[in-house]
Amino acid sequence: MTNDxxxxxxxxxxxxxxxxTQEKLAELAGVHEKHISKLELGTYNPSYATLNxxxxxxxxxxxxxxxxxxxxxxxxxxxxxxxxxILNNATEDELEYYYGLLKQAQKAREIFASN
Length: 115
What we know:
The chain is mainly α. The protein has helices spanning 6-17, 22-29, 33-41, 48-57, 78-88, 92-113.
């Protein structure tokens, strides 16, 4: 894990703003309460399916947490633009696959960075 836990902090802020306990959010999302705690602490990276359940339970869409693929600037890097186009048109199974690859890449980066 990286030391930057922006997602976990944001999740906690949103959960509290909606008046939900970790236990209640976990119940609404259909995940274990410890998943929510670990997400907020930054000790756990959720699968795409878990992320989707949590966002759904909070009545949020992915673009509400900063991932709006339709608003990519033409000035952005061409590789980034192509990546966003692929993700925007991907099926849920494909997104799960890509998410897994990104998690593996992040883990490898952290291993090499610690050496």
